[in-house]
Design a protein that fits this description.
Elements (H helix, E strand, L loop, with lengths): L1 H23 L2 E2 L7 E5 L2 E6 L2 E4 L4 E2 L5 E2 L5 E3 L5 E3 L5 E2 L5 E2 L3 H7 L24 H34 L8 H14 L1
Parallel strand pairs: 1-5
Antiparallel strand pairs: 2-3, 2-9, 3-4, 5-6, 6-7, 7-8, 9-10
Helix pairs in contact: 3-4
Length: 188
């Protein structure tokens, strides 16, 4: 009788673990580079384009990152564990993108940042990519400056030549100086 009870107990434990194991075992999910796994309304969903697709099992990304779809717990390949907050998401490469400064701070264990803190607006310091017309205008401006510089060099060479040949009496270079100053004004 004890053997039968023990066998039944082992079978029920095995069935229960098999039943809950389907939710805890992470399996590979087909992704595209633009997909993301975002925490929405307390559960992780896979978003492809703009369309959220509910998940039915935990996710294993190609780099080894594991995502619990029910709790939003993310285990990185190195063993670090973090919990996603509402709006946080994981890229298919395993990178985590935090929706707020508060959730980013909490993930690194920094409790000094309020949970409601927001990120400041980011401004890209690089200039906007130039259009072909803008590049052509810029090239034209550069060519104009190059020709002005060549003219200035020619005037300076003339001045040097005048000053070196008439060493005994001072040469008047006022007209050359005025032309050089005019070129300098155009170059600024």
């Amino acid at each position: 009788m004890k053997k039968i009870l023990l066998a039944l107990l082992l079978c029920s434990v095995g069935a229960a673990s098999a039943q809950t194991g389907s939710n805890t075992v992470a399996s590979a999910v087909e992704t595209t580079p633009t997909d993301r796994f975002i925490l929405q309304n307390g559960e992780v969903v896979q978003v492809r384009g703009r369309r959220p697709m509910p998940l039915t099992h935990n996710v294993l990304l190609p780099n080894g990152t594991k995502i619990n779809y029910k709790s939003g717990i993310v285990e990185l390949p190195g063993g670090k564990i973090t919990t996603l907050k509402e709006g946080d998401y994981v890229r298919p490469t395993g990178e985590i993108v935090f929706a707020t400064a508060g959730s980013a701070a909490q993930s690194r264990g920094d409790n000094t940042v309020p949970a409601t803190a927001q990120f400041a607006t980011y401004t890209d310091p690089r200039p906007a990519p130039a259009t072909p017309a803008a590049m052509e205008t810029r090239l034209s401006e550069m060519n104009s400056k190059i020709s002005l510089m060549a003219e200035k060099i020619q005037l300076l060479n003339q001045k040097i030549s005048l000053l070196s040949t008439n060493a005994q009496r001072p040469t008047d270079t006022a007209s050359l100086d005025q032309k050089i100053q005019a070129i300098d004004a155009k170059l600024k």
